User: Fold these one by one.
Assistant:
Number 1:
Amino acid sequence: MTAKVSESDPDLDLDLAVELVNTVYALAAPPDRLTNTGAYQHILREARQDALADELTPADLPALRELRDSIAPLFAATDLTSASTLLNPLLSDAALVPQLATTDDGAHWVLSTGLHGLAALRARLLGALAAHLVRHGTARLGVCQAAPCTCAFVDRSRARTRRYCCDQCNDRAAATAYRRRRT
Ligand SMILES: [Zn+2]
């Protein structure tokens, strides 16, 4: 059975967390794209999460920014103790009620049952981050090493050697290293 994109999917939700954090990109002008909810609604629609995008309203902007700023440090956490210290208060504040959802493939946790809009988004992103940390620890979550960029990424490379958020940052870092070698 293929997963329906409209349903909560931990990999997709983790990517949505990354995309939320990366609405701040140091090299963009201006660096912060999240000056209205439309910027993130666009990201949700690109990920075929139209229902969730439709439920966000302009009044959600402060909470959306707060969610972004609260999950961003998780990508810099280097051990599970510090990651848990960051994530547990967020899970606690969200007062999530896990429900077991069953499919033909088995069962999985759903944290957003009965929630809508920002509350559903918060539940899905926090749930995806928690599930990822349980499964993989902090090794695959990272922050771009090409200063001044501080974008987040999930390292899905086989060798777990990813250091940059995107090809542009990779190229920029390579060019900087090349210049350094020549001087
Ligand atoms: Zn970067």
Number 2:
Amino acid sequence: MLDSVHQAIQGQIERVLPEVTQWRHHLHQNPELSYQEEATSQWIAQTLRRLSLDEVREGVGGFGVIGSLRGTAEGAADGPTFALRADMDALPIQEENEIPYRSCRDGVMHACGHDGHMATLLGAAMVLSALRPLLRGTIRFIFQPAEEVAGGAERMCADGAMEGVDAIAALHGWPGLEVGQIGVRSGPMMASADTFDIVIEGRGAHAAMPHSAVDPVVVGAQITLALQTLASREINPIEPVVVTVAQFHAGTAYNVIPGKATLQGTVRCLDPELRKTMPERLERVVAGICSALRAKYRFTYDFGTPVTNNHPAIVHLIEEVGRELLGPQNVITLEAPSMGAEDFAIYLQHAPGAMFRLGVGKQVTPLHTPTYDFGDAPLPYGIGVFCHLAFRYLQDAPLSAGGL
Ligand SMILES: [Zn+2]
Ligand SMILES: [Zn+2]
């Protein structure tokens, strides 16, 4: 049975691959920025409608699109729902690739490979819709806008994207892995990402008369340095945490001490409990230094994307599928999580799931660079892992009905 399913899936992948490759080129050529993915959204909905799914929902949480496919195998009506997610937005970068399907929009390109993620998910939808009689449950295909600005997932979930979903998976193209490899990790895979704003209110004066000023530049500099001691002196050194002051604005002239300075930055953690303590820690340092140096302050801390916490059972399933499909040597266990963030984390607060990395080749330049290209070669591997994973999850009734 499993062998014949395997063959059926692989046969369908071969059949759909030329068209899916064209789709990726179309998407790559027509990138749209976060919250502006209107044409992409319409095009995905049209493409999904051609696949005779049971439902295609547009306008989910903005420009999101959701396709739903109900299997017809015995017991499918009572079976679980497995979701697969792709992100849709591009980045404000001028493409430098010399390729026939180069971006036709100046200053906008798919430098994070979301064209490849969308094409992979459409390919999986095409393959699985042809294998409906084998599916013992429902598969939901989630196309999400605005990942790069970490707002899309929240809106999608608020608009019901995860209602009735038992588990979810997603992939990200990864230049650190060869084509035909995947990278997996149980537990925290990406960090939480929060932001903070500090306004230091001092007193402006002539730059030659510092004694009559309360200099917010000096106060801000002390705060910037002191915040580094949270990671280096206050929090256990084996606990990963990043505090970065990324913006420091003050002043307008060579000879004027300004009255105000603003600091803005980001905090990254892998432990949700530690994360909760960070606003107090930051504000204590800000308040102490401002008090010592006679300045006033305003402090705001915004909790953003949570930790991307991969569920061990779903990771295990991805590993199993990967070993069978790609060979054990091509399933790479990631040694360390990344302190980058991914808004897929939001879905994981609604159901267990996991994100894995899909190799696009080590010769490919890093994500978010003007020469990044997801490429065509990873497509069949991404589609293969998605399809086998979805099939196996629906098939494995004890897993879906029990522990998760
Ligand atoms: Zn990105
Ligand atoms: Zn991305």
